[in-house]
Each structure stands twice: as structure tokens, then as C-alpha cells.
Design goal:
The chain is built from 7 helices and 16 strands. With about 270 residues, the chain is α+β, with helices and mostly antiparallel strands.
Length: about 270
């Protein structure tokens, strides 16, 4: 495991530990404070605590850091390399207490993710990937590994699944799913990428999102042999700080890459 990937894993698990200090399945919010950002999305003390934990670790690398909670200007990263993080992806799911939130960390070089880490604090599932492969680990309460899976050596894929958000783009995805006879599964946050690399299928996003929502997940998909591409142009995603918004996209597992043209065509039909 590379030193930078190891650092990102440590940062993600540390952030998850901070998030769980504010989380409980019941009504007790454990001192949680909530405010509303300019884009009307919620910001909690759990987001800020996770952000602080991640930056504390990642700054040891000497690489610039761009976080949803502390955005890096486009001119700051002189060599085009920077960490791109979402300290608590799925804040609305966190507030709903449904467990569907995660920590996302990616390293960007030349506008592309070269490693990615996603940690799901509630289930203690850790996903990570770089040029050496993609893996899932399940951790115990002390952060020790209970189980490790090589995601490129899984025996079985379901493939006939479409993963989608709980909000915003149901009409188009329902049309595509019915056309392909795929089963639709709605999941909060970037956990959708995790389930895609675990089970196969497609993840369709036809609603607004930001670069930090998707970079770590794209790294997982890419290093499992899949692809993520712009739904309108069919080009690969670009992670440049000049534009923080992601295009609508289609993510396919290795075993569904042959459906790229078909799904793109169905997406265009769904907008008519």
C-alpha cells in the first residue's frame, strides 16, 4: 500500500470516529449543532469535526487540500495535484439517522483521481483503490481489520442493478431501469459507488452534485475496471477547481461497460 493511500485511509477512519461522536439512531443528537449553508444544504458540527480530523492527517503529505468545508482556489494548486475531500457525504442522511453517509477522500493529479477512499462509519466498511487495485475491509471498534476483500477477484456480480439517489432524478432512472429490466436501488451518499463495485450494475446521477461527492467513488470504479463518464458528452469526468460542479454522469461496472451506448441513448430519450 502506498504511503499516500495509507494516509488517506487513516484520515477517513479518524473522521468517521469523529462523526460517530455526534450520531445515534435515536433522538439524542449528542450536542450536534446545525446551520444552513448558502446553497441551502445543512452543515453540522459533525461535518466540521470530520473536516478537522482529515486535514490534520492529510497536511502531513504537503499536498494542497480542497474540502467541501474549506474550498481551495483554482490558483492555489500550482502542479495540479490536490486532495479532494467530503468529510461527511450525505449530511441529510446523517440527520435522518439512516446510516447512509460516508467519508470521501481522493487524490487528484492532472484533473483525474489517482486514489480514492470511502469509509462508512456506521457499518465500519472501508473501501479504497489506487493503481495497485481496489479493496474492501470491515473494521472492528478498534479499527482492526476483521475481513478484507479484493474487489477485482469477486466471484459473482448481480449486474442487473441501477443505483440512484433518494432525491432528484427518479423519472429518468426509472425509465432506463424499466427499459433494461434492471432493479433500482436508492441509496444515500457516495455509498452508491461502493455498492456498484461490490455488486456490479450501473450508478446513474442526473441531479446536481459536486466534485468532492464523486472523485473517491470514481477512483473505486476505475480501479475495478469500470468507467464513469459525462452523461451528455460521454467524456471522462474532469476534476478541475475552476468548476466545482460535476456533470450528470453514468458509472458502469466492468461487466456492464457494454451497455454504455444503450444507457446513453435511453438517457437522451428520457429527456424528450
Amino acid at each position: 500500500m502506498s504511503e499516500l493511500l495509507n494516509l488517506a485511509i487513516k484520515a477517513a477512519v479518524s473522521a468517521g470516529r469523529e462523526i460517530m461522536k455526534f450520531y445515534s439512531p435515536g433522538d439524542d443528537r449528542s450536542g450536534l449543532q446545525i446551520s444552513i449553508k448558502e446553497d441551502s444544504s445543512p452543515l453540522t458540527s459533525a461535518d466540521l469535526a470530520a473536516n478537522e480530523a482529515i486535514i490534520k492527517e492529510l497536511k502531513k503529505s504537503g499536498i494542497d487540500i480542497c474540502s467541501e468545508e474549506s474550498i481551495l482556489s483554482a490558483s492555489s494548486s500550482m502542479d495540479g495535484s490536490f486532495w479532494l475531500i467530503d468529510p461527511l457525504d450525505g449530511t441529510k442522511e446523517f440527520l435522518a439517522r439512516n446510516g447512509e453517509f460516508c467519508v470521501c477522500i481522493a487524490l487528484i493529479k492532472k484533473a483525474r483521481p489517482v486514489l480514492g477512499v470511502i469509509f462508512i462509519p456506521v457499518s465500519k466498511e472501508l473501501f479504497y483503490a489506487d493503481e495497485n487495485g481496489a479493496f474492501k475491509e470491515i473494521l472492528d471498534n478498534n479499527g482492526e481489520i476483521i475481513k478484507r476483500v479484493d474487489l477485482n477477484k469477486k466471484d459473482k456480480n448481480l449486474d442487473n442493478l441501477i443505483f440512484s439517489s433518494r432525491r432528484g432524478d427518479a423519472k429518468e432512472i426509472e425509465f432506463i431501469g424499466q427499459s433494461l429490466n434492471f432493479e433500482q436501488r436508492c441509496i444515500g451518499s457516495a455509498i452508491k459507488f461502493c455498492r456498484l463495485v461490490e455488486f456490479g450494475g450501473a450508478y446513474l446521477r442526473f441531479a446536481p452534485s459536486y466534485l468532492w461527492d464523486n472523485a473517491a467513488g470514481e477512483a473505486l470504479v476505475n480501479f475495478c475496471g469500470g468507467k464513469v463518464f459525462d452523461a451528455n458528452s460521454s467524456k471522462e469526468m474532469s476534476y478541475e477547481l475552476a468548476n466545482l460542479k460535476s456533470p450528470f454522469f453514468i458509472a458502469l461496472s466492468k461487466n456492464t461497460l457494454n451497455l454504455k451506448d444503450k444507457i446513453t441513448q435511453l438517457y437522451k430519450q428520457s429527456k424528450i
